[in-house]
TrEMBL record:
Classification lineage: Bacteria, Bacillati, Bacillota, Bacilli, Bacillales
Organism: Ureibacillus acetophenoni
Keywords, in A-Z order: Transferase
Classification via InterPro entries: Acyl_CoA_acyltransferase (IPR016181), GNAT_dom (IPR000182), N-acetyltransferase (IPR051531)
Protein name (record): Ribosomal-protein-alanine N-acetyltransferase
A GO molecular-function descriptor: acyltransferase activity, transferring groups other than amino-acyl groups
Domain N-acetyltransferase, residue spans: 12-181
Gene3D superfamilies per the UniProt record, alphabetical: 3.40.630.30
């Protein structure tokens, strides 16, 4: 379910990271503005290596009842390149929910590929893993990401505010969610 996962769409293959993905992944995440709306530090190449090694370890621990982190590489079928990432994991604010996330290379944006990857990940979360609810955070200024969440059928609930100092990077993030029941009704 996690170690050998392979999600496939018309244009994408989405799979767990392998150690040999370091350079292609670093090329994507080091693009100018890739982290514009992501409240994290931009990793250097060594940081990407550590994230990938950590992701592999997390996939070995993941179960349907507890997802530690399910980081996936997005590969463009046409050119065989890693063009981004997506996945499922514990929400960054510690609310005890499962969060969907995604990011895609600037040269592959505005083609519906991020939506395609997010939709496949959402489907996998509900249909294969059996999650009851999936949520997402998106910066209120990140209009393309907000549109993706809406196109996934996720519902907007509120904008995050009044956070403690250590979580202040998430101030202004929009909270969206979708339950398995809502997902099934939309099919």
């Amino acid at each position: 379910m996690f170690l050998n996962a392979k999600l496939e769409t018309d244009r994408l293959i989405i799979r767990p990271y392998k150690i040999e993905d370091i350079d292609q992944t670093y090329a994507v995440v080091s693009e100018k503005d890739f982290y514009q709306y992501i409240p994290e530090e931009i990793p250097d190449r060594e940081g990407v290596r550590k994230i990938i090694e950590w992701s592999i370890t997390q996939n070995q621990k993941n179960t349907a009842d507890k997802i530690y982190k399910f980081n996936l590489a997005i590969i463009h079928k046409e050119d065989g390149k890693i063009i981004g990432y997506c996945g499922l994991g514990p929400d960054d604010l510690g609310m005890g929910e499962t969060e969907i996330y995604y990011g895609i290379s600037s040269q592959y944006r505005k083609q519906g590929l991020a939506l395609e990857a997010a939709k496949a990940t959402l489907e996998y979360g509900f249909e294969v893993i059996g999650l009851k609810k999936i949520m997402a955070f998106a910066d209120y200024r990140n209009l393309p990401s907000l549109k993706i969440l809406e196109n996934l059928g996720m519902k907007y609930h509120f904008r995050i505010s009044h956070l403690q100092e250590e979580l202040s990077d998430f101030e202004g993030q929009c909270y969206y969610s979708l339950t398995a029941e809502e997902y099934l009704k939309s099919l």
